Amino acid sequence: DAGVIQSPRHEVTEMGQEVTLRCKPISGHNSLFWYRQTMMRGLELLIYFNNNVPIDDSGMPEDRFSAKMPNASFSTLKIQPSEPRDSAVYFCASDDRGKAFFGQGTRLTVV
Amino acid sequence: GENVEQHPSTLSVQEGDSAVIKCTYSDSASNYFPWYKQELGKRPQLIIDIRSNVGEKKDQRIAVTLNKTAKHFSLHITETQPEDSAVYFCAAGEGGSQGNLIFGKGTKLSVKP
Fold first, then answer.
1. Which of B42, B101, B102 is the best mutation test for A, with the most CBs of A within 10 A?
2. Does residue B86 sit in helix, strand or coil?
3. Model confidence over A55-110: pLDDT tens digits?
4. Within 10 A of A42 (CB to CB), how many other CB atoms are there?
5. With A10 labelled, which of A87, B27, B78, B83 sits at a CA distance of 20 to 30 A?
6. Residues of chain A positioned with their CB less than 8 A from the CB of B98
7. Beta-carbon separation of A99 and B46 below 8 A
8. Closest Cα of chain A to B101: distance in Å?
């Protein structure tokens, strides 16, 4: 298994543009998490899904952020419109009996 | 919801010394406590975990202890080596496939040769 796969690895975009981050979890894992990492705030849980259903999205900072999981093998995190303060590393993780396995992350820079 | 506090935020030790990182949690329903190591520019990786039915777990030079009554758990690294230098995160959650993990803010460990 290739592990959790995220794309793109790096994204540079202009303020106001829409950004879509993608994640393919490990096959067979029932839960998927989106985290954001910054120096100031550390690793923040944004949202998590269980069996493709969003369970807790209380960490999503604003309505500009949305996440979907249309099937067990794919999830997206969308930011529209993006702002410079959204610049961070976004990690996707999938869960096996409580053990979270992280993807490589997407480094997002909004200029 | 769960809140995890982690201390210290930075820790510098001499090679060969021990390092201890401490975390507290707030939700008594949490029963799963993993520790992750994140090297610069890389993803967090699980290094050890403990469930609430166990008070201590050891894996070579690393060990984790858990005090459920006091709601705190600690990571102990003995005989530290330069390659132990990284950011370490504790987390707490309900475990299982329906739980989520809330992370501490991280501890940057530097091991000086």
1. B101
2. strand
3. 888 889 889 999 999 999 999 999 999 999 999 999 999 987 778 899 999 999 99
4. 18
5. B83
6. 30-31, 50, 55
7. yes
8. 8
